[in-house]
Structure formats: structure tokens, C-alpha cells
Amino acid sequence: MYKPATIKDIAIALNLSPSTVSRALRDGYEISAGTKKIVTDYANSINYQSNPNALSLKNKRSFSIGIVVPELANSFFSQAIAGIESVAYESGYHTIITQTHDSSTRERTNANHLANRSVDGLLISMSSGTTDYTFLKTLHKNGLPIVFFDRIIDEIETFKVTSANFTGSYNATQSLIKSGRKRIAVLANAPQLSITNERLAGYKKALEDNKMPYNADLIRWCYKGGNDYQEVENAVISLLALTDQPDAIFITSDRISISCIRALKSLNADPNTMAVTGFSNSDVVDLLQPNFCYVRQKAFEMGQIAMQMLLKLIESKYPITEFETRVIDTEYHGMEKEN
Amino acid sequence: MYKPATIKDIAIALNLSPSTVSRALRDGYEISAGTKKIVTDYANSINYQSNPNALSLKNKRSFSIGIVVPELANSFFSQAIAGIESVAYESGYHTIITQTHDSSTRERTNANHLANRSVDGLLISMSSGTTDYTFLKTLHKNGLPIVFFDRIIDEIETFKVTSANFTGSYNATQSLIKSGRKRIAVLANAPQLSITNERLAGYKKALEDNKMPYNADLIRWCYKGGNDYQEVENAVISLLALTDQPDAIFITSDRISISCIRALKSLNADPNTMAVTGFSNSDVVDLLQPNFCYVRQKAFEMGQIAMQMLLKLIESKYPITEFETRVIDTEYHGMEKEN
DNA sequence: CGCATTGTCGGCAACGATTGCATAACTAAA
DNA sequence: TTTAGTTATGCAATCGTTGCCGACAATGCG
């Protein structure tokens, strides 16, 4: 059984009381310099580290924060987590990362576990299946600091960060239209997600500004968010089967973008006939298809901002009532390979 | 301040003693059915969950395990973690995931933090920079169950899982040779990694079996393991600059594979003149380059096996002295696109 | 010299949950 | 009425740490 050294061990070894050792280690004013040196030297020699469980129990502070994301095997989220970690690390916080696989149940149990494991705060990007937010509302009402990033919700008032989904989507669609595309289909993520609706709204607005009709026949929903390849392939097939075939596909999510490209390839669709533009943070997307234009989210930066917001919530001495929703702009990567 | 309900809260609300509540919740034999029902009903109604910190402190069991990997934004590791989680989840364990970014220091602090946070065990894949294993040896000697996966080390005797790196590498090289390649260069990961040496050994053996000379001029080391694109590009440039240019490149790691393909593309290398084969678990690798052959590791499976081994270590009542190193075979994906 | 101040340090209690042991209330038998 | 036996509940200690209070000696000052 693994058993690290405790303050008590040090106290016995040095013939001191546990409280004296504790204060010596924390550099308390009441301990003489001599005793401090003896204690810290001995502590270092046995590689003493305080027990975080005991500290959490006593102080209700764990200096660790919980992260709940749908999927680690997703470039956007792993990049965002890297951003979160970079800020957390230099502020002395550790991160506990959990994934939900877009399951509402896993999301709830993970969030509850983290809360009870006394994390000091929670960073969460909602899973696509969740419609009932009461578990989060309860945690939040009980005082757990929560910051939403990317997939945010309106139902809870707190700090939030998300991408300029509307604008990114609008620009991408504009670009497709300018290149002469007339019938632009959409592969959309689950409709209960904030990002899906914003991205769809940007698409619609671009059509409208160009006096092009919005055609619901050209929209396909991928409820599994690209986790289910078959769902995407079926959507693509049904688009190709339309009598009045689309000449472009706009995709509102990373995973669906990849699956769509794969589907088009396996169906031998002509890349010139069918333009493809989508959201993607894959680090190889520029190698994928010569004419694949994409919208990239600033994932790392978003993670950093989310963590900074959470720190503000955690370390504020007075309850915060003014909340901000930051919107990070996106990068559009068009046909010209400038990189 | 977030403050979950405690057993004491229940005791006061129900006018019972904390011990009675505790025993009722744990279904102790000494509590009447009536009291049990009252207690459990009330506990459910306020969504009571026991405090894991208190339990860990008392029982020295946290039912959570620590994971230390170099990089989350790496398909192999995110897939392996998914495998770990699948087993952990159904055994009632939570996972705490940390990444080292291939920094030896981060690795040490992460491992120590996890150990002190009283995880019941550790799953680790070594970062490329680490050469001093004393911190792990100390933890292991103190009784912390550790299982190594993928990037394993000899210095600590315990359960380990890794891929059939030698065979996978041998077969891939064989395949290159059979397709007529004569001068096969290598982009190798950091030389202190177990996987690098095994993969290089497989390459050498294939050359030997085909009576081809091993030429150290054709080997390039990428110490940053592909995290530094420039390092890879420089290696590729120097290979292309050889008077006797190689006609193939074999790559021992995922990230380096991607970077190499990108470098070749940006240098306008002819894919027919220069065959590329490498290890990769990227889920889009089949879309990348028409003639890119690759070796895929069974990451998910490896994660599952590692977690099962760790469970065996944790839950064994007697100290285990017989350890096993499992070797998982790899999949070779050649030119014929069968998928 | 007497009293207050300062500097060091130890003891106790508490954080939340569990558990061995003691004890209370009660029934049934002597 | 007393005693044994059963059932239900409370007390106190424990895990590692720290806040609070009190003990004690050395020192300063009037």
C-alpha cells in the first residue's frame, strides 16, 4: 500500500508537535528560524508533500479544476484543453479532465463527481445530447464556479466564451457564393447546441444578403455530431441523390467535416463539382483535399480565456454578479494556400 | 462557496446520529428497515453524495486512477485513453488525465501530484525527454501500483503493454523493399524511447534479411517527436539534399509522419519518387496522401489491457511478483485501399 | 522586584465519513 | 420483579492538516 510521509511522521522524527511542523513548513511567524530550517530540511530529505485530500477536506480548496468535454479525440477540444492547462499550470492549479462522449448521463455523473471531489471550479463544453440542465443549475446554485466554453447555454448566468460562429459561418458561406456556388447544402450538428444554431444563422444571413433562397431540403442534421460515420455518409448520399443536386456543402462541425470528405471520396464525387467548406480544427486539414476551405476556431486561446474567467470567479472575494460572454473570432482558410 | 450536503446535515434533519445515517446508507445489518428507508429517501431527495476526500483520507482508496501521457492532441493517446476509460468506467473508477508535453519536469510533478492526490494507481507512457526514472522508482517502491503502456521502460518491474513495434516495423520495411525501394531513409523519434529502438530494430532486420546495407546516413533523429515541425522539415530537406537521394522514407512516429508528409508537400516532392510509410493513428490518415502506407497501433485495445492490468495490481490482496509484458500486434495498411 | 510583553511551541478541535465498542430501550422468559 | 437476549442507536477515535488558544520562558520596563 502506497503511504506517503505525513506531518505527524516528521513531528515524531524531530520530536516536535504536528502543529509546529505544519507552521514551520508554511513559514508561520510564530516559529523560530532554527526550527524552521530543521523542519524544512528534514521534509525535503524525505520528499514530503502535503496530502491534498486532507487539505481539501480542511480548506475546501483543492487547487484543481474540472474539465468536462465531449471528446478528447477531437482536435478542437484537445487544443482548448492545452490552452486551459497553460493558464492553470502557471496559476498553480491542476486539471482533471473527463470526457462525456456526447452522453448526457456521462456528463451528469462526471460533473457531479468532480464537484464532490471538491474541484474549485468547472469548465464545461456541453455534450450534444443534453437538454436538461438541472444538474448544472443545482451545482451552480450551490456555489460551484462554472465557466462554459464553445458549446454554451443560456440557462445559466455565468462567464462564457465561444467563437464568432455567426460571422465565421457567414463569411464562409459568402465565400462559397462569391465563387459562384448556387445551391449550398448544409451538414449540421445536433440542433440543441448553441454553436449549431449560430452557424446555421450565419449561413442563412449570407444567403439572404445575396438574395438567395433558404431551402430546407438542403439541410441535413447529424445528431451524432460525426461520431457516427454512417449517419454522415447517408446524409451525403441523400444530398447527391437530389434531382436538383447541390454544388457545395457547408459543414458546421469538425468531425462531420472529416466524415463528409471521406464520404465524398468514397462516393467518387468530383471535388470541382462539389465544393466543400466546413468548420475544422484538425491539424492536418490543409493536407486533406486541395480545395477544402475551412473555418478554424482559436481553440487554444479560447481555453486560456475560459481558464482566466474561472480563476476570476474562484479567487474573487465577493460574489460576482456581472458576467461577460466573450466571443473569439475565427480564421477563414480559403483556396489560396498562403501557408 | 460550494458546499455539498454531508452526513451530518442528514443526521440533524432527521434527528439521528451521524453513525446511524452512515450505517443506514451502507445498508448495515444493525439498522431497522424503517430507519433505512427514511434515511435513503431523504438522502436521495437532497441528492446526497459522500465526500470522496473524506473517504480517501480514511480508507486510502480513491477509486480513481491517474493517467500520464505526453500529449492529448495525439490520436494514439486519445484513443488509448478512451480504451482505459471504458474499462475504468465499468469497474467504478474515475480517471484523472494529465499531459506532459514531453517534458520530463512536467512528468515528474504530474506523477507526484497524482500519487499524493491518492490515486489508486498510475498508467503512464513515458515522455521522450525522460532519462532519470528515480521519481517513478520511488513511487513504485513506496507501493504505488504502476502500469506502463506504449512507451515502456526496463528499469521498473511491473505490468507493461506495448505494440509489436519490431514486427510492425519489419513488415512495413519489407513492404517498401518488395515494392522496389532501394534506399529507405528513416525519420526516428527520440532515441531514449523504447518504441523508437524497437521500430528501428525492425527496420534494420528487414534490411538485413534482404541483404541490403544499413546506412546511418539515411537516419534522421527528431528529438522533439514531431512537436517541432521545423525539426522534421529540416530532416526531410537534408535527406532530399543527399547526392544519393533516398527513394523512400520510413517514419517511427505518428506526429513525425504527418509533419513529414506536410514537408514533402511543401517541398513539392514527387509522391512516386519518394514512397512514405510510417506509424500513424490519425483517423484521417487514409485521406491524406494516396500512396501513404502506414502502421496503425491498436490504441484502444492497448488502453483497455493496461487498465485491466492496473486493476489486477490494485485489487490483488497479496503482492504480485510475477509480471507480464503484453505485446499487441499492429495493423499494416498498404497501397490497396480495402476500406 | 513585579508585571507586561514577546517569542516559541504544544494541545485541542474540526473538516466528513466510517467503525468498534458501549449503551439504551425493549421483549420475553424465569 | 429480575435477568437474559435482541435490536437500535450513540460515542469516540481515525485519516492529515490547520486555526485557535493557552503554556512557558526570556526579556523589557517602571
TrEMBL record, chains A, B:
Keyword Iron-sulfur carried by entry: no
Top-level taxonomic group: Bacteria
InterPro entries per UniProt: HTH_LacI (IPR000843), Lambda_DNA-bd_dom_sf (IPR010982), Peripla_BP_I (IPR028082), SBP_2_dom (IPR025997)
CDD domains tied to this protein: HTH_LacI, PBP1_LacI_sugar_binding-like
Gene Ontology molecular function terms on file: DNA-binding transcription factor activity; transcription cis-regulatory region binding
Transcription found in the keyword field: yes
Any Pfam family hit: LacI
Signal peptide: none
Keywords: DNA-binding, Transcription, Transcription regulation
HTH lacI-type domain boundaries: 5-59
Protein name, UniProt field: LacI family DNA-binding transcriptional regulator
UniProt source species: Mucilaginibacter glaciei
